[in-house]
Amino acid sequence: MIKFWSYEREFNKYRKPLIKNIEKTIKKGNIFFGDEINSFEKKFVKKYKAKYGIAVGSGTDALLISLKTLNLKKGDEIITAANTAIPTISAIINAGGKPKLVDIGEDYLIDIEKIERAISKRTKAIIPVHLYGQMCNMEEIKRIAKKNKITIIEDCAQSQGAKYKNNFAGTIGKFGCFSFYPTKVLGAYGDGGFILTNDYNAYKQIKRIRFYGIETVSKNRFKDKYYANENGLNSRLDEIQASILKFKLGKVDSFIKRRRELAKVYSKKLSSTTLKLPKENLKNKHVFHLFTVFHAKAEIIKKKLLKENIQTRSIYPYPIHRMKAYSKIIKNQKNLRNSEIKSKGIFSLPLYPELKNSEVNMICNKLIKVLKKF
Ligand SMILES: Cc1ncc(COP(=O)(O)O)c(C=O)c1O
After folding, report:
1. Nearest to 193 by CA among 235, 246, 254
2. In which band, very low, low, confident or very high, does the pLDDT at 331 lie, cut at 50, 70 and 90?
């Protein structure tokens, strides 16, 4: 079986340094807020050329905490794409906001042409979701945000290391929110997330919110561990995950290189099929967190591939406004047609750095065979 994703090969490859790091970290005697989180935060910020960075408990928390700094009032709206991951939406609602969905374009990213129409007097922010490994058109989003005085919070959960006009994902908006969910470009062996910002006051506030609202002094030391300056959360990244992530951050460029190589193999082999293949937009560096294709007969194709021992996944099969949890909150949202069409036909093929070229070739050959029958 070719699994859609697996960490087994990665773990086997890096077993020694990973285990050594974990042991060393445990021996240091800190489970939270020790050297590992400090040095990981420093390394991440330096690598992606931002001023400040805060490691948190998950990508969902990264979004929630960033949104909390906006002090949303009832009825305040946050614009985002209709085909995003559930957590983009739950973060908005849990921060007290109302999601306002915008349809997607042919690249599965928020349709730039439709954003301005969705802006109202209550719009406080926009969350461009850089889905599947590719960044949204940030030049236009920046222009619209500036004109309408709204904050940009980038959802970079699927696009760590991606670039738009040479700017890294997460460094264009006020906040860049990352996920270290194990399948991601930089995956932990558990949950984790990160926020990048160039705003010092926001950075200080995010550090407070991350840990019960307690003020920090330098690094991750606390002014008074038992005194809250504002109402916060518990969203710590533990030392073990920080040490794993720090080690893997040193390898992340090679992971991305390999993802791009494999995407090239897929694109070349599948170029003359009826599948709609992913495209790298102009001015973009795509990191291929996922290799997402579209076909009107996606369901049958997926079933046939599974019979050939190839796992695929539909990310995401339901547009947000069609889910029970949100259909009542997100009412009267029209013009989301493309999100509905795409959600029925998109699916992703296996792609992770340890996948072999021969396996990708084999997947393509089987897929070509399946497609010939339509
Ligand atoms: C686009 C997007 N946003 C947010 C998240 C939330 O990240 P996490 O699972 O780390 O909470 C994810 C991850 O699943 C995601 O893909």
Report:
1. 235
2. confident
Domain ranges across the chain: 8-102+110-249, 252-372
Give the pLDDT of residue 219: 76
Task: Tell me the pTM.
Answer: 0.97
Helix (H) / strand (E) element for 348: namely strand 346-349
Q: Whose CA is nearest to atom 7 of ligand 1?
A: 59
* Residue identifier of the C-alpha nearest atom 8 of ligand 1: 59
Query: CB within 6 Å of ligand 1 — which residues?
Result: 58-60, 84-85, 87-88, 129, 155, 157-158, 179, 181, 191, 193
Tens-digit pLDDT profile for residues 157-199:
999 999 999 999 999 999 999 999 999 999 999 999 999 999 9
- pLDDT of 281-321, one tens digit each? 999 999 999 999 999 999 999 999 999 999 999 999 999 99
Amino acid at 57: G
φ, ψ (nearest 5 deg) of residue 256: -65, -40
DSSP result, 85-120: -HHHHHHHHHTT-EEEEE-B-TTSSB-GGGHHHH--
Helices 59-68/86-94 angle, 10° precision: 30
What is the number of the ligand 1 atom nearest to the C-alpha of 61? 11
Question: Under CATH, which number does the domain 8-102+110-249 receive?
Answer: 3.40.640.10
Residue 82 Cα to ligand 1 middle (Å): 15
Across the chain, mean pLDDT equals 97
What fold is seen in the domain 252-372? Aspartate Aminotransferase, domain 1 (3.90.1150)
Burial of 243 (0-12, 13-18, 19+ CB in 10 A): buried
Q: Is the pLDDT of residue 278 over 80?
A: yes
26: nearest Cα among 248, 242, 250, 216: 242
